Batch of 2 targets.
Target 1
Amino acid sequence: MTQNCEMKLLGSVGSAFVTRILFVFKLKSIEYEYIEVDQRNKSELLLKSNPTLQRVPVLLHADEHPISESLVIMEYLDEIRPDIHPLLPSNPSERAQCRLLAYTFDTLCYPWMKEFMITREAKRREELTQLIIGGYIMLEEAFEKLSKGKAFFGGDDIGYMDIVVGSFLGWTKFYATIFNFNAIEEDRNPKLTKWEKSMWSHEVARSVIPNHETHMDFLNMIISKLPSLPDSA
Ligand SMILES: N[C@@H](CCC(=O)N[C@@H](CS)C(=O)NCC(=O)O)C(=O)O
């Protein structure tokens, strides 16, 4: 991370979506400047760059139009640096599968995981546990098809789906510690269990996935933004 780069990333430490972009920067050896956004007090720069969604990550690349949404940013970076560590498979059908899987993960699994973290109801947390388990079983099947017996979704090295799911590995580890719930268990997910080990042994994954304390700070920040409970009589 340097200053005065033509590539700037607006992010919030602890966000798995931001972690995805850090993965790509590292894998593709892209220099960037990181600009932290305080989620409790969003900066003018964020509101100007992503006025509709007002979320991080946002990529500012020289004078180009700002780009938001982690999956869109990942593909953009892959297109402008196609020769260094390509992320998506070269086969169009496999590319389509990856995009669909990423979309499914983000629109189903992520909201379940987020709600799991903030719900105050034990019954709802149990329902969400089952939904998340189902999501990771779906990923287990997808891993089998895409990895073709190799260590990563991307084959011999980290690819697009490894980043999409791997960006949440810090969070799944955090859930195991704090909530005693592991989304990836050997009996349900034998292949993903091995994949998780391969990811944690990868230097880039270890360097970009935030640690336990960062996740704890992020959780506290999310809780502080929740409406307070009405006083019980
Ligand atoms: N689908 C988006 C999700 C981004 C997202 O949810 N970012 C969160 C941080 S983890 C955020 O900025 N939230 C602020 C808000 O919703 O007000 C992506 O892939 O980039």
Target 2
Amino acid sequence: MLEELKEANGYVTGKIKEKDELILEMEKYAAENNVPIVTKEVAEYLKFMVNINRSTNILEVGTAIGYSGILMAKASEKYGGKLTTIEIDEIRYKEALENFKKAGLTNVNAILGDASEEIKKLNEEFDFVFIDASKGHYKEFFDDSYKLLKKDGIIFIDNIMFRGYLYKEYPKRFKTIVRKLDEFITWLYEEFGEKFVLLPFGDGIGLLKK
Ligand SMILES: C[S@@+](CC[C@H](N)C(=O)[O-])C[C@H]1O[C@@H](n2cnc3c(N)ncnc32)[C@H](O)[C@@H]1O
């Protein structure tokens, strides 16, 4: 999350009264076990976007334990939709499978593997893509999934402003990621103009409409 927004985010999240037991349990588990899941206000916005687009075929890059996946799969279920989600870590993948089962979802295709290889193997069109995995590969995930995106489809990119390191001092070890993300954002504006928007909330969100 962007540090500068902590107070505002606290206000927003204070207004959200989550009632779903599984979601609450997963939020607790993620906090206790350092699993990076979308922040609450981003989760709300993600559901909102899936709903206003009535998305029926969603691709997620970076499943973790299935938190955002469950939110999107449930939202799209109403429109007869489904979710394909990719996770590289076997332990997290197995946890996600358990959670999808607990949520009673039958519209999820969970894939264990490296998204750099797995997206290329998919042979279908998506109307919503959520990119939330290794930031050093965002451009690659974007290029691969854009090819599978329907006209008018949306790509939602989380953590694109990487803790604010793109505009303030950052630990040296992040030099390459910071450079790559900054170049990626510049490219998105140049290439897509008004079809791309950068939103400075959560940890920075990039939204593209094809
Ligand atoms: C920020 S977490 C995803 C959180 C999840 N979207 C949520 O909000 O509930 C990023 C996940 O991406 C996975 N990941 C990283 N690189 C990956 C890759 N190349 N292919 C697939 N998954 C990857 C990590 O193992 C991690 O579980």
